[in-house]
Amino acid sequence: MAYPLQPEKKRQGENLRIGVLFQAASFLLAVNLAGCGQPRPDRSLEVFESTYAPPPAPPYLVRNATILDGLGGEMTGADLLMADGKIITLGPEIAAPADAVIIDGTGRSLTPGIIDVHTHYGTATLPYAIGSPDHWDVNEASDPVTPQIRIETAFNPQDPALYYALSGGVTTFQVLPGSRNAIGGLGVVMKNVPGPTSQSMKFPGAPYGLKMACGENPKAYGIEGRPPYSRMGVVSLQRQAWQKAADYAADPDAPRDFGLDVLAAALDGEVKVHVHCYRADDMSIMMDMANEFGFEIAAFHHAVEAYKIPGQLSEQNICSAVWSDWWGWKLEAFDGIPENAAYLHASGACVMMHSDVPALGGRLNIEVAKAVSAGRDAGIDIPPAEALAWITSEPAKLLGIDDQTGSIGTGRNADLVLWSGDPFSVYSRADLVFVDGALIYDRSDPARQPRGDFMTGQPSAKSEP
């Protein structure tokens, strides 16, 4: 026979039951919160590790040069001492170490090494014919969305374009996949020092860059009867990929996917997103997509209509990597203007120059000069020493290596160019190019003018680049 509980015992039983339920609920909540708070599994992108080591070199002392520091500063009649790969000190009348090589900088300019943020070096190897598979590894055309590909796995360190760029003062460069894909894969930052493999040139610790594209180029798939056929299709594919990445990042038990690893890393801020984009309206859509999914666009590349939306670009802290005066070779490039860079700079937006093609790789200093000249004609006076940042310190910031290179200062990597005169004159040449304090290129010494295997024995290789 069951006896009814007394009121006080009934309350005790209810309290006990509520306590048990509360403890169970607390346990389940703690488990769920712990799962949400856990970092995603180790899906490291570091596979092909850098084997780069600075070349051995004696100390060098450059005397009595005009030093432009890449940050807008300028010193005349100054000395600079470099040793052990670093800039040791700069200023007037520096005492020379006993083992230093003395270089006369009288009438010459010393600048940071040039940094090119958009190249296809080593993957569109010279000589090439666009579309030829022999020397053309820029795009992976099997699918419009290929975040899993890595341009470093196709990089040919014998590309003659590397040596032409070196002769023009380029010490660091980023190689990006092409723009045919809506999402094209991982780029890589390289030191412009001759080496037998991509790993031997890879900039240690530099963040990866993810290439995306909008507009006419990724629409090219439609020509072959495969989607996307329109700008709508391109954006739709990109949004689907980012949503998959967000779901993947939230699921620690998801099967490993190399492409989603890359996109998840971009969502975490580990990978910098670079977007090939010409029109202002396309750039605005890309910014909306970035805000929707929470990734950051580091830069729009080419960006011929960036001058139309400088406020929006500045507000979202997005750089524009541009040419000085290229325009009109396709419809989305038709509204470009030579004042583009100057307008962006005057509006407080981040801007820099880039090559994209080898023809400009060794002439980025002249690209700056042309853009400054166009701005001056439009009433925007930008001091050349300030504009030098467009190919030195600003690209270094964009690539996440500005704590090491891109400017001249004590403790920085000795990536330097000694010019025969004004670095913005078409009559000046890069006389000496240093990478990590080692003299890699000397215009007066053929023994210090690196040439790849493709250049050996060719008549054109015997003439000065």
Structure description:
The protein is an alpha/beta fold and 465 residues long. The protein has a domain at 114-408: TIM Barrel (Alpha-Beta Barrel), CATH 3.20.20. It is built from eleven helices and 16 strands. Strand 6, helix 2 (160-167) and strand 7 form a beta-alpha-beta unit. Helix 3 crosses helix 4 (258-267) and helix 7 crosses helix 9.
What's the SSE blueprint?
Layout: H1 7-37, E1 60-68, E2 74-83, E3 86-91, E4 101-104, E5 109-112, E6 114-119, H2 160-167, E7 170-175, E8 183-191, E9 209-213, H3 231-250, H4 258-267, E10 272-277, H5 280-293, E11 297-302, H6 310-315, E12 319-322, H7 340-346, E13 351-353, H8 358-361, H9 364-377, H10 384-387, H11 393-399, E14 416-419, E15 430-435, E16 438-442
Parallel strand pairs: 1-4, 1-5, 6-7, 9-10, 10-11, 11-12, 12-13
Antiparallel strand pairs: 1-2, 2-3, 5-14, 7-8, 8-9, 14-15, 15-16
Mean pLDDT: 90
**CATH topology term of the domain at 114-408:** TIM Barrel
Provide the CATH superfamily of the domain at 114-408: Metal-dependent hydrolases
Distance between the termini: 107 Å
Report low-confidence residues grouped into runs of 5 or more: 1-38
* Sheet with most strands: 8 strands, mixed
Reading off the top of the CATH hierarchy, the class of the domain at 114-408 is best stated as: Alpha Beta
Key phrases:
alpha/beta, 11 helices, 20% strand
Structure summary:
With 465 residues, this protein is α/β, with parallel strands linked by helices.
